[in-house]
Amino acid sequence: EDFISVIEKKNESINAFLEVDGDNALNQAEKIDKKIKNGEKVGALSGLVFAIKANINVEDFVISAASKTLENYYGSYNATVIDNILNEDGIILGITNMDEFAAGSSTESSYFGSTDNPAATGRIPGGSSGGSAAAVASLMCDIALGSDTGGSIRNPSSHCGVFGFKPTYGAVSRQGLLDLSMSLDQIGPLGADSSAIAIGLNSLVTNDPKDCTSLKWNSSDFLKPLENNPEELIEGKKIAVVKEFSDVTDDKINGLVDKSLEKIEDLGGEIINLKFDYVDLCLPTYYLINYVEFFSATRKYDGRKYGYKIEDVCGEEVLRRIEMGSYISQQEFSGKYYKRALQARSLIRTEINKLLDGVDLIASPTVPKLPHKIGDKLEPMEMYAYDVLTVIANLAGIPAASMKAGDVNGIPVGLQLQAKPKEDLKILEAMIALE
Ligand code: GLN
User: Fold this and answer.
1) Domain range spanning residue 21?
2) Which residues are catalytic?
3) What is the pLDDT of residues 307-329, one digit of tens each?
4) Fewer CB within 10 Å, N side or C side of the chain?
5) Span from the CA of 127 to the centroid of ligand 1 (angstroms)
6) How many angstroms does the Cα of residue 362 sit away from the middle of ligand 1?
7) How large is the average pLDDT for residues 188-208?
8) Which of 161, 176, 64, 226 is nearest to 411 (CA)?
9) Using a 6 Å cutoff on CB, does residue 318 contact ligand 1?
10) pLDDT for 8-40, tens place per residue?
């Protein structure tokens, strides 16, 4: 009821939710209440309220991916992550705004209008999971689900001052997620603190036979580190910093990251300086792969089965990706663009894993610049520049998270932590210790 009343007061101006089903949520809550009163066993998410990004299938909600293409498409089944939530007695309250088909970093490309940043009114909340981050930041839910292809969970978490986690590729099922770029996409939780993230991961990380890229992995108990004190979680850990990452970042943002590094040292962690020579390669590699995979993913939106023909109704950025993806994947160009992008990707993956070989974590800013004012006109390359520090984790398939590091004149700034594949727990431990 509290969340619903905040939504009633604030959603009109923030536009975090595209659809809310308060009655259904209250019904679910009552059922759980009854179970508790009857002394029945309840699930691990019992009573927690979830907001779901508009590109994850939830039965009977409009799953539009914030595009006119799918404005009348109702989720016809529950994605595996939704079943995971419902099976553990979590409550689904509604569907959140996003960039059209998750292709963006500002949530301005939504067909349903942009979302305001609750922590810095008038500025973008980041994207593409801007509605999910804004819902968490304005206390409209406990946990929100986002998807992260090149930063879309971490970037809006950073701009809105919340916590967001992109798990290892394959750790969380993608079944029921509308693809942006299938070899990079990953679903994950956003929350107001590290315990929300721990609780979210504990129920979301499962093997799913319905997703052929799902990992078979006996992941650890993500709730365990909540019992430890900060020193126990950080002492003796090696945390790398990379000069090439701070070189591309606004100095004020670097200043806040430095404060987090001091805290790591105070808690007994060791800071190690490392080099990464491929920063310039990251955005071109990411976008070439994204264009081609997105072009392929959108061929089903031809106006016959799902909604309208995408090219007839989509926005500028989505059309750019479809046209570029179709162009560069032509057979005669594949050696020139796509194959080279795949080679560059494997180079980036190898090099980042080499860095991670000698350390526990890499710490960096999440986003290199502060969020712009809603409506400011940015060139595509200026918009893509937001992503330079987040795309690496997706290209390499490694886990990465963003937590609030502080703020610059009231505008939140995030600290990003990255680890080796399947070392998601190490990131969570550091987040818990540094919070
Ligand atoms: N901003 C990046 C892009 O536009 C990342 C998007 C995402 O992670 N979904 O592709």
Assistant:
1) 2-434
2) 53, 128, 152
3) 999 999 999 999 999 999 999 99
4) N
5) 7
6) 21
7) 97
8) 161
9) no
10) 999 999 999 999 999 999 999 999 999 999 999
Residue type, 67: S
What pLDDT, on the 0 to 100 scale, is given for residue 334?
Answer: 78
Torsion of CA 399, 108, 175, 46, to 10 degrees: 80
The residue type at 223: L
The pLDDT score that the predictor gives to residue 218 is 82
Instruction: Please give the distance, rounded to the nearest whole angstrom, from the Cα atom of residue 230 to the centre of ligand 1.
Output: 33
The atom number, within ligand 1, closest to the CA of 104 reads: 4
Edge-first strand listing for the sheet containing 143-148: 17-20, 91-96, 49-53, 143-148, 186-191, 163-166, 400-408, 411-418, 361-365, 238-242, 270-274
Distance 391 CA to ligand 1 centre (A): 8
What is the total count of domains within the chain? Answer: 1
Whether 118 lines ligand 1, by a CB cut-off of 6 Å, is no
Indicate if the pLDDT at residue 415 is higher than 90: yes
As a whole number, the mean pLDDT across the chain is 97
Residue 335 has a pLDDT of 84
Cβ-contact 187, 149 below 8 angstroms: no
Residue 182 gets the label, from left (phi > 0), alpha (psi -120 to 50) or beta, of: alpha
Closest atom of ligand 1 to 287 CA is 10
Residue 1: count other Cβ atoms within 10 Å of its Cβ: 9
149 lines ligand 1 (CB under 6 A): yes
Assess whether the C-beta atom of 128 lies below 6 angstroms from ligand 1.
Answer: yes
Q: Which two tokens stand for residue 354?
A: 């080499």
Q: Is the peptide bond before 158 cis (omega within 30 degrees of 0)?
A: no
Q: What is the CATH number of the domain that holds 50?
A: 3.90.1300.10
Q: Directed axis angle between helix 194-204 and helix 80-87, to 10°?
A: 110
Give DSSP secondary structure letters for 33-78. Answer: HHHHHTT----TTTT-EEEEETTB--BTSB--TT-GGGTTPBB-S-
User: Could you write out the three-class secondary structure of 347-368?
Assistant: HHHHHHHHHHHCCCEEEEECCC
Give the burial class of 211: count Cβ atoms within 10 A of its Cβ; 0-12 exposed, 13-18 middle, 19 or more buried: middle
Tokens for 367, please give them: 């986003």
pTM: 0.98
**Residue 117: is its pLDDT beyond 90?**
yes
